[in-house]
């Protein structure tokens, strides 16, 4: 299926946000002629909007009747309409109802609050208004989902979109689960919404989160790396032959937990990354996809221990400005709790290695965890467990204790945000 950039004015082939090109089929004839948009659900999913918004938008633009809730996924516009023309209209829909008005990022949630329709941007954190004079705005306001709950079909769609992203198919559905429109009572989502009580901790975290959002925005272009199978393949083609060769590996699991043997492949990856960094004049100049391909060449691109190596090699004392740029690649590899734990373990080791030169490196712990969380690299469950169980698996226990201690403000904030959310849900 042909993919196009969500923003067609962006010509970069590595643009992260993709969707299927609209496909149509004309059926019937005469007065009964109609256009079936055969992949409307998929496109709607990529945009994290209900299909009804898209079809209705086409209907308004074309002055044609549409169905907004087809039981069989047959989305219909009365009359004969050309797919290319619909694609042009879709650009309008995306500009008006998807893209952040401030930074033009398509990863936004719709929030309805006090009769306004707000786009909540995951990239820059801004909330911007949709023009209420647009016909579709009226439709959106009239067809709000039930408070705080998504309907079943939408939840399913969000899950599917998330899975698609995980399969490396395309990343456009990332964050699908928390996408779309929860009209929660105060209109806040946990990512960005903080408690309104203004104790010192909340203020501190809030201030840091603001800085964080600004940084994320600065990094936006760089972290928008397309790690889809297609993009990786395309990149692979550009590489010299020796690099394309795959090592023949036996399928044995490498000493998974082990501190002992079986490290050679991971060492090779680590050494290779360090050499590349040296040759290119800094780790930040080593490309994500090249790192990923190297791991793949070694046959360890899906292993949790790879994450342990990466945390210690792709980051350095500038880690807080590096996480955003590497989040796309890391997300591709981090697929389980074990991977998340490896990320935290590798980070502990990185921190320990920085202490000699930067004794105050503990100060960065909150920010690091915030960034990991913000970019979906660690889940609440895993980081909470990590925080409550000191371990000397990765670093000596005195360092470990200090890291846990330094993490406390973040963990407290997380626990409070969680409480608030469950209160909201039980209302
Ligand atoms: Zn934005």
TrEMBL record:
Residues 145-196 are annotated as: Disordered. PROSITE patterns: W2. Residues 259-424 form the W2 domain. Pfam families: eIF-5_eIF-2B, W2. Gene3D superfamilies: 1.25.40.180, 2.20.25.350, 3.30.30.170. Keywords: GTP-binding, Initiation factor, Nucleotide-binding, Protein biosynthesis. InterPro entries: ARM-type_fold (IPR016024), IF2/IF5 (IPR045196), Transl_init_fac_IF2/IF5_dom (IPR002735), Transl_init_fac_IF2/IF5_N (IPR016189), Transl_init_fac_IF2/IF5_Zn-bd (IPR016190), W2_domain (IPR003307). Belongs to the eIF-2-beta/eIF-5 family. PANTHER family: EUKARYOTIC TRANSLATION INITIATION FACTOR (PTHR23001), EUKARYOTIC TRANSLATION INITIATION FACTOR 5 (PTHR23001:SF7). This is W2 domain-containing protein. The lineage of its organism: Eukaryota, Fungi, Dikarya, Ascomycota, Pezizomycotina.
């Amino acid at each position: 299926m042909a993919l196009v950039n969500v923003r067609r004015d962006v010509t970069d082939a590595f643009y992260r946000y993709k969707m299927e090109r609209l496909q149509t089929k004309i059926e019937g004839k005469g007065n009964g002629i109609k256009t079936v948009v055969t992949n409307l659900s998929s496109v709607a999913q990529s945009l994290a909007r209900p299909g009804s918004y898209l079809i209705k938008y086409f209907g308004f633009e074309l002055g044609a009747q549409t169905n907004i809730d087809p039981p069989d996924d047959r989305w219909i516009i009365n009359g004969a309409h050309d797919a290319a023309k619909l694609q042009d209209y879709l650009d309008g829909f995306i500009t008006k109802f998807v893209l952040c008005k401030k930074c033009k990022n398509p990863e936004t949630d719709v929030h309805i609050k006090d009769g306004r329709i707000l786009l909540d941007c995951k990239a820059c954190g801004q909330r911007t208004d949709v023009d209420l004079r647009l016909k579709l705005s009226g439709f959106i306001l009239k067809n709000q989902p039930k408070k705080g709950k998504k309907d079943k079909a939408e939840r399913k769609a969000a899950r599917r979109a998330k899975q698609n992203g995980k399969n490396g198919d395309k990343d456009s559905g990332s964050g699908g689960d928390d996408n779309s429109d929860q009209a929660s009572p105060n209109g806040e989502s946990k990512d960005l919404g903080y408690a309104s009580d203004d104790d010192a901790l909340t203020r501190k975290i809030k201030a840091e989160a603001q800085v964080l959002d600004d940084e994320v925005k600065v990094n936006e272009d760089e972290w928008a790396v397309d790690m889809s199978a297609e993009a990786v393949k395309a990149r692979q083609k550009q590489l010299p032959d020796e690099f394309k060769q795959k090592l023949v590996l036996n399928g044995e699991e490498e000493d998974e937990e082990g501190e002992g043997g079986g490290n050679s492949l991971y060492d090779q990856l680590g050494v290779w990354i360090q050499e590349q960094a040296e040759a290119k004049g800094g780790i930040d100049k080593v490309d994500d996809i090249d790192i990923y391909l190297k791991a793949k060449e070694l046959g360890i691109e899906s292993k949790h221990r790879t994450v342990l190596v990466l945390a210690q090699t792709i980051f350095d004392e500038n880690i807080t400005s590096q996480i955003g740029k590497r989040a796309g690649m890391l997300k591709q590899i981090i697929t389980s709790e074990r991977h998340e734990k490896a990320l935290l373990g590798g980070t502990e080791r990185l921190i320990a290695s920085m202490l000699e030169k930067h004794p105050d490196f503990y100060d960065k712990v909150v920010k690091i965890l915030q960034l990991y969380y913000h970019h979906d690299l660690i889940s609440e469950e895993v980081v909470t467990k990590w925080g409550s169980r000191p371990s000397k698996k990765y670093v000596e226990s005195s360092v470990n204790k200090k890291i846990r201690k330094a993490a406390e403000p973040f963990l407290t904030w997380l626990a409070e945000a969680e409480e608030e959310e469950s209160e909201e849900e039980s209302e």
